[in-house]
Specification:
6 strands; single chain; alpha+beta; two-stranded antiparallel sheet; Glutaredoxin; 4 helices
Length: 159
């Protein structure tokens, strides 16, 4: 059975990284963009990380330019934006596609594991969030679901 921890993704500097390093942790995997109406959620994502990191929680951000071209920058520009504006301490991976033939395999898996409204697998916009529990269960949250609203689910997954 495939799990999130079986995937390898590219870091912001283009190096391969196995997600196995996060095995046993609760993860919030998010497709992000720096010029989106939901971009201020970076602040809430960092607040979740601050609150729960010591208990085995991590946020994994994957910039995506598929929705309204709202992530036009390269990896350096994205990292600089996240640091300067939101002081992000969680990993921001390489820019990816989340839909279509070139979709990142991790996101293909997440979409199948936790379909959206009416069973649709497609991601509709930036800041769609996938909560992955240590035992591999996946729950999807819509872009308009604030990071704070996900805290009770994180608490339950951390025990």
């Amino acid at each position: 059975m495939t799990r999130v921890y079986d995937f390898t993704v590219k870091t912001g500097n283009g190096k391969a990284q196995s997600l196995s390093k996060y095995r046993g942790q609760t993860l919030l995997i998010v497709n992000t963009a720096s010029q989106c109406g939901f971009t201020p959620q970076y602040e809430g994502l960092q607040a979740l990380r601050d609150a729960y990191h010591a208990r085995g929680f991590e946020v994994l951000a994957f910039p995506c330019n598929q929705f309204g071209a709202q992530e036009p920058g390269d990896a350096h520009a994205i990292a600089q934006f996240c640091d300067l504006n939101y002081h992000i301490q969680f990993p921001v991976f390489a820019k990816i596609d989340v839909n279509g033939e070139g979709a990142e395999p991790l996101f293909q898996f997440l979409k199948r594991a936790a379909p959206g409204l009416l069973g649709s697998e497609a991601i509709k916009w930036n800041f769609t969030k996938f909560l992955v529990t240590p035992d591999g269960k996946v729950k999807r949250f819509a872009p308009q679901d604030t990071p704070a609203s996900i805290a009770p689910d994180i608490e339950r997954s951390l025990g």
